[in-house]
TrEMBL record:
PROSITE patterns, A to Z: SH2
Record's GO cellular component terms: cytoplasm
Region (Disordered): 1-31
SUPFAM superfamilies the record matches: SH2 domain (SSF55550)
One GO term (biological process): enzyme-linked receptor protein signaling pathway
Pfam family for this entry, one: SH2
Species in which this protein is naturally found: Bracon brevicornis
A molecular-function term among this protein's GO annotations: receptor tyrosine kinase binding
Protein name (database record): SH2 domain-containing protein
Domain SH2: 49-130
Length: 130
C-alpha cells in the first residue's frame, strides 16, 4: 500500500499547506519552493512523529482528529518492535491503521510489505510519496 503520509503536528510533507512556516513563504505571502529533500524534512521533524513513549490507544487519540496521512511511530506492545500508526481516508475501513515495523538482517519493513529500508526515515519517505 502506498498511503500518503504527513507528520502529526506542526511539520508537514508535500501537498499539505496547513503549516504557516514563515521560512517557506515569500514576503508577499505566496508559497516558495522547498529547499530541502523529503527525507531531510522527515529527519528534522522526527520529534513530532517519533513518539516511542505512547501506546496504541495514545496514538489513536492523537490521530483521530487529524487529516488523512498523519502518522506516528511508536513502541509496539510486542517487545523490541516499533509500530506505525496512520490516519487513513474516510471510508477505507478502520480510519486509523497500525502496522508493525519489522527488523530482519539489519533492514526494516512494514509487516505487510516486501520493501526493505535502512532506517525509519527512509521507510516513511517511501510511503509518504504521493
Amino acid at each position: 500500500s502506498s498511503e500518503s503520509l504527513s507528520s502529526e503536528g506542526g511539520s508537514s510533507l508535500p501537498g499539505d499547506t496547513s503549516t504557516a512556516d514563515s521560512s517557506s513563504r515569500s514576503d508577499s505571502g505566496s508559497e516558495v519552493a522547498c529547499d530541502i529533500t523529503l527525507i531531510e524534512r522527515i529527519i528534522r521533524s522526527h520529534p513530532i512523529w517519533f513518539l516511542p513513549g505512547i501506546q496504541r490507544a495514545g496514538a489513536f487519540h492523537l490521530l483521530q482528529g487529524k487529516e488523512e496521512g498523519n502518522f506516528v511511530v511508536r513502541q509496539s506492545s510486542q517487545s523490541d518492535t516499533m509500530a506505525l500508526s496512520v490516519r487513513l481516508p474516510p471510508g477505507k475501513g478502520p480510519y486509523i491503521e497500525h502496522y508493525l515495523i519489522q527488523a530482519n538482517k539489519g533492514k526494516l519493513s512494514l509487516e505487510t510489505s516486501d520493501n526493505r529500508f535502512d532506517n525509519i526515515p527512509s521507510l516513511i519517505a517511501h510511503y509518504a510519496q504521493c
